[in-house]
Amino acid sequence: MRSTYRVLAFVIAMGVAIQAASVALAFFTILDEVDGGGVFTADYDYESNLGIMIHRVGGLGLVPLSALALLIVAFFTRVPGAVKWAAAVFGLVVLQIALVFAAFANASVGALHGMNALAVLLTAIWAGRRITHVSEQDERARDVAAA
Amino acid sequence: MSGRGTLRRPSRVVALGIAASLALTVPVGVLWARSLLPDTYSVMEMGYPDWGGGPGGSGHQAHVLGEDTPGSPAATSVTELTGPAGRPDVAVTLVARQEPVTLVGGRTVAGYTINHTSPGPLLRIGQGDLLEVTLVNESVADGTTLHWHGVDLPNAEDGVAGVTQDAVPVGGRHVYRFVAEDPGTYWYHSHQVSHAQVRGGLFGLLVVDPPGRRDDGDVVAAVHTYDGQRTVGGAPGESRALAEPGATVRLRVVNTDNAPLDVTVGTSFRVLAVDARDVVGPEDVEGRAVRLAGGGRADLGFVVPADGSAVRIQLGQDGLTSLVVGPDDGAAPEVGRVEGLLDLLSYGSPAPLGFDPEAADRRFDYSIGRRPGFIDGIPGLYWSINGQLFPDVPMFMVAEGDVVRMTLENHSGEVHPMHLHGHHAVVLSRNGEPASGSPWWVDTLDVASGDSYEIAFVADNPGIWMDHCHNLPHAAEGLVAHLAYVGVSTPYRIGGPAGNEPE
Predict the structure, then answer these.
(1) Chain A residue closest to B9 (CA)?
(2) What share of chain A is helix, strand, coil (3-state, %, to 5)?
(3) d(CA B278, CA B292)
C-alpha cells in the first residue's frame, strides 16, 4: 500500500507536468493556426488540437482519479499523516477544477488555476517523498524494538 | 499492510479507510452508472415532463408522454404530421456526399457536399409553393437528414434523426414536402451527427420570396467556417457581389457557424428582417454591428452609392472576411469603427403580436448552467438544464393552442444560441427590460452568459420539437430538450439500427 501510495503521488506530479506541457502545446498550436489565417471562435475544432485534448483528459481523468485513489489508499498505509497529505492533494485538485468554472465566468481567475497547479505538484511530491521517509524511519524503529 | 505491528490489531484506521473509500467512490460510481444511456431510447422516455403549470401535470410521469392516457386525445404519431400531398410547385433532388470540399481559391478541406458543392444549392421558391426535396445519401457514412432551419413546417418534415425520421443510410433516400408559408431567409442542414456534418459543410440556403418580389437586388451570404477558415459562400477573404450604383440591396446574411457573427455594414442600413420575420418600422442604422446568433439570419437593406463606389460588409470582428457589394471595379473603403451592437430589443416600431402573452397557459424555465459530471459514463464539464445533466432534462409539454411563455436564462459562462424547432417566438424582455421596438420574432436567440430572456409563442404546430443550443457541439454535450404536444408520439428512437444521433 505504501508503494502504491508513493506511485500514485508521483503519477499526480507527472500529471501536473503533462498538464503544463499540454496547455503550452495548445496555445502555440492556436498561434500557429491564427498566423496561417485561421479564426479562433466557438467554431474552433478543439478536438483537432492535441494539447487541448490532452489537457481535458488529464484534468478530468488522470489527475482527479489518481488523487481520489491516493486518498483511498492513504487509509490503508497506516502511516501517520498519509491521509492528511493525500487529503491535501485531493482538496487542491478539487479546487483546481472549481477554478476552471470560476475562470469561465471571470477569465482572470484562470491565473489562479495556473498557480494552484504548482501547489498540487509540490504537495504530491511532498506526500510521495514523505511516505518513503516515514516508512524507513518506521522500519528502523521496529528493528530496534525487536532487537 | 506491511510491517509486523500491523497484524496485531485490526485498527480503526482501516475501518475508517473502508468507510471513507465507500463514501468517496460509491456516490461517484452511482453518478457514473446513472449516466449510462441505453443503446437505443426514445426521446419520449427521456428526462421528466414539465407541464409548465398547465393541465396534464397529475404527477404521474411514466405514461404521460404521448401515450393514450384517459382524458387525452388518442396518440398521433409524428409520421402522420406530413406536408400536403399533390403536385409540387418545385421539386429538387439533393445528393449528400462525404467528400473533400474545395473552397473558392482552391483550398480543399475534408467535409461534406450537396450536389458536389458546399454550401449546397440555393433553393429559391415563392410563398405558398409546395416544395418537394428528395434527399439521396450517396456516401455519408453516419447517415444524414435535412432539417429546414427556421421553417415552421409539419413535424414529419423537420428532418431530425431519431425524432421525426430515421437517418438516411448510404444508398437511401427521403422525401421532404412542405408549403413555404412565410417568406424569408432560411437554411437547411443535416440533423444527424450535426455537430460534425454541419461544420463539414452539409448545408445550403433556402429563400422564400413573397408574391411579386423575386431577385430584386438580393444578395445572399452564407457565412461558414471550414476548418478554421471563415468564408462567404465558400470563398475566404474578400468576395464581391455585383450591384448597380444607386441600387437598393437586400442582403440576406446567414450565420451557419456555431459562434456569434458580427456583421458590420460600411454604409447606413436598415434591418429589414430577423429570422425570416419582417421588422416593423426599421430605422436607419449607422456605426453599429448586427450580431447574428449561430444559425440566425438577418436581411439588411442598404443603397449602393451613386458615385461608383461599393459597400463593404465585414463579416466577423477580425476583418479577415468581407463581402463587397457594388459595381465591378468600385472601390470599397474599409468599414469604420463601430460604437457597439444594434439592440433589437428597442429597434423598429411596436405592433400587435396577434396573441396575448399575459394570458399564458404554460410557463417554462430553461435555465442553462455548467457543471462537472458524467454523460453516458464519460466525465466532463457539461451544460446543465434547470440544474440537471442530459438526459435528465425537461420535456416541455403543451397542448395545441396554448400560449406559452418561456424564460431562457444562462449562467454557464458562455453564450448559447437557443433554437426552437417548428415555431417562432417573440422576445418579451431581457433582464427585466421589456421589448420596446418592433416585435422581435426569433427561431434562434443568442442568450449571453448572465442574461435572462422572456419569450412567448403560440403552440400551433403539433409534434415533437427539439429546443436546443445551436452551437452544435454544445448540443452534443447535452444542451438539448424538447417541446412535445400532448397526444403526439414518435416511433423513432435515438441509436437503434439507423444509428440516429441528431446532435
Answers:
(1) A78
(2) 90, 0, 10
(3) 16
Under an 8 A CB cutoff, do A101 and B370 touch?
yes
Nearest CA in chain A to B255: A43
CA distance B295 to B443: 9
**Interface mutation target, options B226, B381, B415, chain A, most CBs of A under 10 Å:** B381
B4–A146 C-beta distance less than 8 A: yes
Say how many C-beta atoms besides its own lie within 10 A of residue A19's C-beta.
22
Is the omega angle on the peptide bond into residue B333 within 30 degrees of 0, that is, cis?
no
The span from the CA of B145 to the CA of B221, in Å, is 23
C-alpha distances in Å from residue B156, one per residue of A23, B150, B408: 46, 15, 27
Could you give the dihedral angle defined by the CA atoms of residues B341, B346, B352 and B355, in that order, rounded to the nearest 10 degrees?
Answer: 70
What ipTM describes this predicted complex?
0.71
Beta bridge partners of B133: B92, B176
3-class DSSP string for B174-207 = EEEEEECCCCEEEEEECCCCHHHHCCCCCEEEEE
pLDDT band (50, 70, 90) for residue B1: very low
pLDDT tens figures, B10-24: 577 777 778 877 887
Q: How many CB atoms lie within 10 A of CB B441?
A: 23
CA-wise closest residue to A48 among B51, B109, B292, B149: B109
Across the interface, whether the CB atoms of B320 and A37 are under 8 A apart is answered: yes
d(CA B292, CA B437): 18
Q: Which of A85, A71, A143 is nearest to A119 (CA)?
A: A85
* Locus of grid cell 494552484: A116
Residues 6+ apart with CB under 8 A from B81: B154, B155, B156, B462, B463, B488
Quote the DSSP letter at residue B155: G
- The Cα B122–Cα B125 span in angstroms is 10
Nearest CA in chain A to B259: A42
pTM: 0.88
Backbone angles phi, psi at B107, to 5 degrees: -65, 140
Using CA atoms, how far apart are residues B362 and B50, in angstroms rounded to an integer? 10
B42-78 burial, b at 16+ Cβ within 10 Å, e below that, comes to bbbebbebbbbebebeeeeeeebbbeebeeeeeebeb
Instruction: Fill in the amino acid letter for B364.
Output: F
- Output the pLDDT for position B309: 96
- Tens of pLDDT along chain A (147 residues)? 889 999 999 999 999 999 999 999 999 999 998 887 788 888 888 888 999 999 999 998 899 999 999 999 999 888 889 999 999 999 999 999 999 988 887 889 999 999 999 999 999 999 999 988 877 777 777 777 776
pLDDT of residue B332: 92
> Hey, what's the cell of B362?
404554460
A110–chain B Cβ distance below 8 A for any pair: no
Q: What is the pLDDT of residues B277-314, one digit of tens each?
A: 999 999 999 999 999 999 999 999 999 999 999 999 99
Q: Are B373 and B30 in contact (CB under 8 A)?
A: no
For residue A36, give the H/E element and its range.
Answer: none
Give the closest residue to B294 by CA, choosing from B428, B147, B447.
B447
Q: Among B18, B24, B316, whose Cβ lies nearest the Cβ of A39?
A: B316
Cell numbers standing for residue B167: 437517418
**B304 and B249 Cβ atoms separated by less than 8 Å:** yes
**For residues B462 and B78, what is the distance between their CA atoms, to the nearest angstrom?**
9
